[in-house]
Design a protein that fits this description.
- Belongs to the TrpA family.
- It catalyses: (1S,2R)-1-C-(indol-3-yl)glycerol 3-phosphate + L-serine = D-glyceraldehyde 3-phosphate + L-tryptophan + H2O.
- It is a single chain.
- By secondary structure, the protein is of the alpha/beta class.
- It has a single domain, classed as TIM Barrel (Alpha-Beta Barrel), CATH 3.20.20.70.
- It contains twelve helices and nine strands.
- The chain has a nine-stranded parallel β-sheet with strand order 5-4-3-2-1-9-8-7-6.
Length: about 270
């Protein structure tokens, strides 16, 4: 692996290792690019990055099948405000001027194809994107995107869920180069009244048999308690809808960031 190829992987792995050395799971907040507006997004991202180990930036998309209503509405608002694929990458580039923590983009594959896979990777590399989370790309169906990402120093992350078969878990675990994203529940994203983790330990145990990349768990984490539950099982805790809800409702986002980051301490 060349120096260019190792960049995103190395930065992401270092973030997880730092969190582990400090006795906690990595804290991975999510925010839709351009939400609540293109002008307000950078300051909001700064608030998240103040305590984040990695930041996940959602690329707004008109048909986000894996996202619940909270993130869907945020995407619709961002798109209406003009946040395109290229603008999302520009926003990450702006953040990179102030932050050296890993930044990953969560995107469906259609926006990548719309720009062109190679041009997308070139733009992402130039902006300082460290990784891509690809929720609708089976790693055995399109090797071009993963190969181009590696060529441009960008790590790739795929998802597993409680419904994933052992064969699928093995396939996905072996394909991830940044970290593995384990969905805690079946269904779409969104903060829930409770986070059922009954099937998660077995899913993580199986995944760890096939990879040494860190494993982050998301979907349904909304407060200190649920973050702590996940932190005791996984290498990283992903929180998304809770922050979008907080922005929409005018809550104290930095206070929520602190609360959820504190929950990641084991």
């Amino acid at each position: 692996m060349t120096a260019v190829q190792s960049r995103g992987v190395a930065r992401i792995r270092a973030a997880f290792e730092k969190a582990k050395a400090e006795g906690r799971a990595a804290f991975i907040p999510f925010m839709t690019a351009g939400y609540p507006s293109a002008a307000a997004f950078p300051a909001l991202a700064d608030d998240l990055l103040a305590r984040a180990d990695l930041l996940e930036v959602g690329l707004p998309y008109s048909d986000p099948l894996g996202d619940g209503p909270t993130i869907q509405r945020a995407s619709e608002q961002a798109l209406a405000d003009g946040t395109s694929t290229r603008r999302t990458i520009e926003l990450v580039k702006e953040l990179r001027t102030r932050h050296d923590k890993p930044i990953v983009i969560m995107t469906y594959v259609n926006p990548i194809y719309a720009v062109g896979p190679r041009e997308f990777m070139e733009l992402a590399q130039a902006a300082g994107v460290d990784g891509l989370i690809l929720p609708d790309l089976p790693p055995d169906q399109d090797l071009e995107i993963a190969d181009l990402a590696a060529e441009h120093g960008i790590a790739v992350t795929f998802l597993i869920a409680p419904t994933s078969t052992p064969e699928r878990i093995k396939l996905v675990a072996e394909a991830c180069t940044g970290f593995l994203y384990a969905v805690s529940v079946t269904g779409v994203t969104g903060a829930r009244e409770g986070t059922a983790l009954g099937e998660v330990p077995a899913m993580l145990e199986l995944a760890r048999q096939h990879t040494d990349v860190p494993i982050a768990v998301g979907f349904g984490v909304k407060d200190t308690q649920t973050a702590h539950q996940v932190a005791n099982l996984a290498d990283g805790v992903v929180v998304g809808s809770a922050f979008i809800n907080a922005v929409r409702e005018g809550q104290d986002v930095p206070a929520l960031v602190k609360s959820l980051a504190d929950g990641c301490v084991r």
